[in-house]
Amino acid sequence: MPHPQQDVCCLMGDPVAANPTQYMLEKAFAIADLDWRFLTFEVSAADFETALKATRIFEFRGVMLAPPHRGEVHRLLESVTDAARLSGQVNCIEQAGGGLRGVNTEGQGLRRLAESHVPFKGVKAALLGAGRTAKSMAAELALAGAGSIELHCIQPEQAEPLVAALRGDPQTATVECRVVPWPSDGNIPIADDCRLLVNATPIGRNDYHAALPIDVERLPRELVVADMTFNPPNTRLIREARKRGLQTIDGLSLLVEHAAIAFEIWTTRKPDRDAMREAVEEFLVL
Questions:
Q1: Structure confidence by residue, pLDDT tens digits, 42-93
Q2: Is 217 exposed, middle or buried (0-12, 13-18, 19+ CB in 10 A)?
Q3: Residue 160: its pLDDT value, please?
Q4: Closest Cα partner for 134 from 60, 228, 51, 263?
Q5: Beta strands 247-249 and 176-181, pairing class
Q6: How many structural domains are present in the chain?
Q7: The domain that contains 267 carries what CATH number?
Q8: CA–CA separation, 53 vs 47, rounded Å?
Q9: Comparing C-alpha atoms, which of 150, 138, 139, 146 is closest to residue 179?
Q10: Angle at 86 between CA 54 and CA 190, to 5 degrees
């Protein structure tokens, strides 16, 4: 039996200006020949609960969440995935069976792109930052059975709830997770046996020349380097890592992948990732 109305998904955040999600996913729907729409709503924290209720009433198929809503939505959902629960972050919602289910696709996106180079199980990983994205990555790594996770951050207290959650959960209790304070001077120490480095800080966002306190020349040859910054995608870290011959994953690839996972959850179809990337590049004039 066909759905009684057009299928609609949306993005909610505050602010949402210059967010490429709508343009990217509308292109993906069109190429997949799906009569779906994607809308963007600027929703304040004060209005968020009411807005989410509206998505239930109008039977939206899915919702993408931008800040400040990702860490505040759990109490309004019927269920969440383990990664969303442990990280405290939901960036994707699926409406099905009369309920809302919260998902975090950011960690999944990194895993899909990275595991062709380095399996998450047993890996030693270093994450730069302790914000929303770093927590999402750490939760996915821990659930996949990472050997150890280091969170390098300016405010170590930001990471404490995540570390406590990982240590207190039977699925992740055996994973070594520790917080390393950001150096006041000098470089961030990256161990010789580290195999995955992820920049989840704002350093590099809208700044082609911004440098992280990392000596790229001393990074292990087997290291995979990922940077969450998608504008510009060719950050200084990515450029220097590629110059040294390291495997890299740029932020634009990660943005496309975690949106593609949302597309698959909502539609059960595979999106055209190349078209999605082209759409973001066109939107951002890259």
A1: 999 999 999 999 999 999 999 999 999 999 999 999 999 999 999 999 999 9
A2: exposed
A3: 92
A4: 228
A5: unpaired
A6: 2
A7: 3.40.50.10860
A8: 10
A9: 150
A10: 125
Question: Does 44 share its domain with 64?
Answer: yes
CA nearest to 285, candidates 11, 9, 18: 18
pLDDT score of 228:
97
Q: What is the pLDDT of residue 1?
A: 47
| Radius of gyration of the chain measured on its C-alpha atoms | 19
Which CATH number covers residue 194? Answer: 3.40.50.720
Whole-number pLDDT of residue 4: 62
The pLDDT value recorded for residue 5 is 76
DSSP string of 178-222, one letter each residue: EEEEPPSSS-----TT--EEEE-SSTTTT-TT---S--GGGS-TT
Q: Which two tokens stand for residue 163?
A: 């570390």
In angstroms, the first-to-last Cα distance of the chain is: 43
Residue 264 CA to residue 266 CA, distance in Å, equals 6
Q: What is the CA angle 17-137-158, rounded to 5? A: 80
Distance of alpha carbon 197 from the chain centroid: 15
Does 3 score more than 80 pLDDT? no
Average pLDDT of every residue of the chain: 96
Q: Are residues 98 and 16 in the same domain?
A: yes
The per-residue pLDDT for range 247-258, each reduced to its tens digit, is 999 999 999 999
Closest to 145 in 3D by CA, of 179, 173, 168, 104: 173
